[in-house]
Amino acid sequence: MSAPQVVVHRDKELMAKAAAARLITKIVDAQSARGSASVVLTGGRNGNGLLAALAEAPARDAVDWSRLDLWWGDERFLPDGDPERNHTQARQVLLDSVPLDPARVHPMPPSDGPCGNDADAAAAAYATELAAAAGPEDHGPVPSFDVLLLGVGPDTHVASLFPELPAVHEQERTVVGVHGAPKPPPTRTSLTLPAIRAAREVWLLAAGEDKANAAAIALSGAGEVQAPAAGARGRSRTLWLLDEAAAAQLPRGLYPPASA
Ligand SMILES: O=C(O)[C@H](O)[C@@H](O)[C@H](O)[C@H](O)COP(=O)(O)O
To answer: How confident is the model at residue 251, as a pLDDT?
Structure first.
């Protein structure tokens, strides 16, 4: 697993724009090298902020949207179209504005879908979908995602892996149901750390002073059970994208701001 690289931007708006530009380049490079690209989306303010910046990016259409596979790192277990679902929010800020191939967009099952109101069954169905998309060159029963995006919670959670809760301990399954999550809604589905770590690159997004403590804990060698963000590592790259407020508790010498 790759050691974390940290890039600090002046504020959350600039961080979102810079992350969007970085993602466009990564997708274009993957598509020119392999004919397609795969990205795992995250929910939350920073995740949606990145997608909104992507929608407005000047180079947006350098991406061949028809050859982009989109997955989710976690989902709130709610009915399809519920405004609180990460999928619904991603569609509103970006996905409905670009010419994606619907067959290549893979939302996690809703609570009113074929799995019924059973988050564990929904998780198992998504794990099956991931395994079906994995190839012989991939590292386990998930595709080798080019970029897996993760918002970081103030408690250091990523996806729906919360400190000390059962899902963060999972080492076998790639997707699990989450019950009793401290961040509403309590029932969710989430990739596990082994699935996250199958990604080529993992990018963690944290902006705002309410993330400063989480960033400092996760980057100071904390264990992944106490600080799930610490266990979110990519095979070839782990990149923390912060604004200055979220980087406030990091040793300044180590992580000088990228943009003054
Ligand atoms: O379903 C969710 O809520 C997200 O997937 C979650 O993991 C989010 O990324 C973090 O909680 C950070 O959220 P903010 O960026 O809004 O702080």
So the answer is: 81
What spacing in Å lies between the alpha carbon of 173 and ligand 1's midpoint? 22
Distance CA 66, CA 103 (A): 9
Q: What is the rounded CA–CA span in Å between residue 115 and residue 146?
A: 28
* Nearest-angstrom CA–CA distance, 12 and 208: 7
- pLDDT, one tens digit per residue, over 69-89 is 999 999 999 999 999 999 999
Phi and psi, residue 167, nearest 5°: -60, -30
Domain positions in the chain are 4-254
- ipTM strictly over 0.95? yes
49 CB within 6 A, ligand 1: no
CA distance linking residue 97 with residue 118, whole number of Å: 31
Integer distance in angstroms from the first to the last C-alpha of the chain? 30
Q: Write down the pTM of the prediction.
A: 0.97
Q: Which CATH class is domain 4-254?
A: alpha beta
* Beta sheet of 74-76, edge-to-edge order: 74-76, 188-191, 175-178
Atom of ligand 1 nearest to the CA of 42: 5
CA distance 47 to 20: 10
